[in-house]
Amino acid sequence: EAGMKIYLIAGCIACHTLDGTPSTGPSFAGMWGTERKLADGSTVLYDENYARESILNPNAKLAAGFAPDLMVANFAETLTDQKIDFLIALIKSKGPPKQP
Question: Which tens digits make up the pLDDT trace of 2-26?
Fold first, then answer.
């Protein structure tokens, strides 16, 4: 519940969906615990470290298929560690992709 509130108030909803629908930024649906392909061709595990780094430094490991410099807010100045933890809990709750 706290994560959803921050998702809305911090403006994450403007670019990131929770249901897998494409948008300006990657959806949070079904990403947790998966390998994420990056723009530079490498991969990274979508875990707490990657999520936190992506919030604080969005261009550090840019997801493949998304333009750099779109996430311009400085969340390091506006979100406390606790608020970031709540956001990460929300993302984590959206789980890994469903298996057929």
Answer: 999 999 999 999 999 999 998 999 9
Distance (Å, whole) CA 69 – CA 72? 6
pLDDT in tens, 69-85: 888 777 888 899 999 99
Do 54 and 61 contact (CB within 8 A), yes or no? yes
For the entire predicted model, the pTM comes to 0.88
SS3 37: strand
Q: Please identify which residue in the block is written with the tokens 């604080």.
A: 56
Contact yes or no for 91/18 (Cβ under 8 A): no
State both tokens at 30.
């079904």
Kindly report the number of other CB atoms within 10 A of residue 40's CB atom: 9
Q: Is residue 10 within 8 Å of 78, Cβ to Cβ?
A: yes
At 15, list the tokens.
Answer: 């670019």
